[in-house]
Amino acid sequence: MAGSAPRRELRGRRGECGALDQVVAGARAGQSQVLVLRGEPGVGKSALVEYLVGSASGCQILRAAGVESEMELAFAGLHQLCMPMMGHLDRLPGPQRDALAIAFGLSAGSAPDRFMVGLAVLSLLADGAEEQPLVCMVDDAQWLDRVSAQTLAFVARRLLAERVALVFAVRTSAPTPGDDPLVALPELVVRGLRDDDARALLDSVVHGRLDERVRDRIVAETRGNPLALLELTRGSTAAELAGGFGRPDARPLASQIEQSFLRRIGSLPDAAQRLLLVAAAEPVGDVPLLRRVAEQLDIAPDAAGAAEAAGLIEFGAQVRFRHPLVRSAAYRAADPGDRRDVHRALAEATDPDSDSDRRAWHHAHAAVEPDEAVAGELERSADRAQARGGLAAAAAFLRRATELTPDPARRGTRAAAAAQATFEAGAPDTALELLAAAELGPLDEVQQAQLARLRGQIVFARRRGGQALPLLLDAAGRLERVDDGQAREVYLEAIGAAVVAGRLSGRARLREVAEAARAAPRAPQPPRLTDLLLDGLATRFTEGYVQGAPLLKLALRAFRRAAEQGEDDVMRWLWLTWLVAGDMWDDETWQAVTTHAVRAARETGALNFLPLALSYRAVLHVHAGEFDLASALIDESDTLTEVTGNSPLGYPTAFLMVWRGDDVRVAEWIEGRAQDAMAWGEGRAIGLANYLLAVLYNGLGRYQDALARAERAWEHEELAGFGFALFELVEAGARSDAPEAAAAALHRLEEQAGASGTDWGLGVVARSRALLSDGPAADLLYREAIEHLERSRIAVHLARTHLVYGEWLRRENRRVDAREHLRTAYDMLHGFGASAFAERARRELLATGETVRQRTVDVREALTAQEAQIARLAAEGRTNSEIGAELFISPRTVEWHLHKVFTKLDVTSRNKLRGALARP
Q1: What Rg value do the Cα atoms of the chain yield, rounded?
Q2: Residues 6+ apart with CB under 8 A from 470
Q3: pLDDT at 250 > cutoff 50
Q4: d(Cα 555, Cα 586) in Å, to the nearest integer?
Q5: Interval 217-224 mean pLDDT
Q6: pLDDT above 80: residue 781
Q7: Could you tell me the pTM of the whole model?
Q8: Residue 298: closest CA among 275, 327, 315
């Protein structure tokens, strides 16, 4: 509908109304607007929302309101908001259209990723706004179902150049910031009225003379809350008001307002009170449904008139309470038996075909004792919710189904399913409680083993340390008796947990876990990816790197083939495969698995997984010297983790920062992140932080510091980070007169990187030998290292090899040869953006007597990370829609960015982008 309500002044709200006017003006001008109105109950948020409707003449208006009783119904709030736009559904790209249709129950299919649904909503709103500016308002957002809130937060963060305004009204008593998807969005805190405005409002509703001191006290006690001023004074004399505020046992203001509504409800005829209860229990505001239930409960038709006359509710096209506190007061005031009767009537009156989940939920609220029929109905609702991607809703249905299940065995099964769904929905503490309930039931051996596995997974998710190891090993032992395949998977999970715990679990712990895994049942034939990885890692950590290398190389080859064929296990085990490939100096596997993971996550909309895939891909780009591409992927990953509410993945950012080497403050940041990770139980972070700082200090020429950090990283043998630290330690030791430390590190590096057999591994070994050699032997080794590294993707190590070779040549007084390699190193490192290492090369060039020209600014440096990414995709021939789908922005936003790119690069068309981006 279009906004057409008459504008009216709101007392004392000039600033807030001005902000809302700017929101509408921005949307009309094609500059997307997002605003969160925060305030306590009754402070006037809903009045400001109505003001916004009146201000938005000529705009389409979409409205939704969170309802407390619907918080467990997946996509309920989103469905409310988007229903008027569903005529545009066929215009969306196929994957987006299908995701939204499944989420809304319009079609069947596998569960869509909730942020693919978010991209569909973004596209839907952007498409609708092409016809007319769109103003979307969500009132009582604190009561949105979780998946709707997360999806709308995603949309809000991706709006930029669309004619769309998105405004939320939310209570300040909403969840803590970590649980609030709307946190960090632009917000306006709605406070109480100023004293003079509050006095004027009070005078307008209190008849007769009001003592000045009484009035001042009321204003002070209500803190200028408009609803409190209007409601708490209703029907009271001045004398009563004087004694009614500031009592020693005074309740919170919201409770006082609700009590006022309770008194007004209690003064109504019984039929009107019962009708209000029906309306409060029926969250959709469906008037025909309300009439059917009222008739079923013998509520007289004139009850509606009495409720409306009291100013508590309106019966129009939809049922609307005057304020959400009226709804909660009407529901809480009712006798529990009356509430159950109403829910039972609502369940019977709700269409079982079109609204089966809400019908099941009403039946659940009507149940007094265990009821298998209702429990089964809830279980089926859980299946439907899970199929739509509503994990939190599925978990809620299953929890209630568990409570209503009379049979102990079936109750245990449902409690286990509820625990699994609750864990997957991101509530591990509640999942543990359900797990304990499941363990009380009669369980067979398979169920006991599966619950033990789930307990280990939950403990690992809550604290990434060694606490999960005994639980996972116990689960694996149990599963050995019933399911060899699952047992081997759990052993692999246990090895992964031990790798993450690192030195915090003790030096011998990882070996103990690996020994237990080696004693596991033999792999089936042909072996799965997990089997190959488990056998390789178990051998690696029991017999040593050299003995484990052949098995791990076999596993990595299998993962590369699986990546080419798009197998799901590549995604599941990406994090561990990534570490193993780094440990084996295998950049080919890095390339294969990250290419597949990023593409598959984008195509399926797996936005919980995509940040991890993007982060690993970004680290590969850093190794390849493609810092700009890495930066763009890191920015995208950080945006997605912010939207999904997950913790940012700090390693890629830190890795890029130390290689850039232009901000020594990164050391403090890395130390802080390592401390946070250690508190979380991730001992691996200690070695990782020390390795990163060794890179930083080698770049800055602070070799003693680099040596100290590399030696600390060397104290515990960890996947990938240990070998990388050896590389840094050899250079730092060679440059800081610590030949023994460098030689010891070289010995281990020769053993590990040499056994890998890759050009990357052989190149770093040859380079490290050269650093500790003299004369012709050193010369040959440097050349050998360059030959190997030129055949790899690891450009940063190639550039650093040219650098140390040039430094050695200068000390050998071979200035002409030194200049050649130092110039190559400087050009490469400067081109990458590796400032500290480039400065090392520049100083060495100056020492050879060569003048180093001042570099001109690369035209690409004028582009932001996202602009650079969009420009690259456009240069490859992608359309705006294709770019938008890949980067989770609308085509209009892509066009907006491209306009800025054209201006910065001084081009006028897309077909000139490739040439402009190639210019130095």
Answers
A1: 33
A2: none
A3: no
A4: 12
A5: 75
A6: yes
A7: 0.73
A8: 275
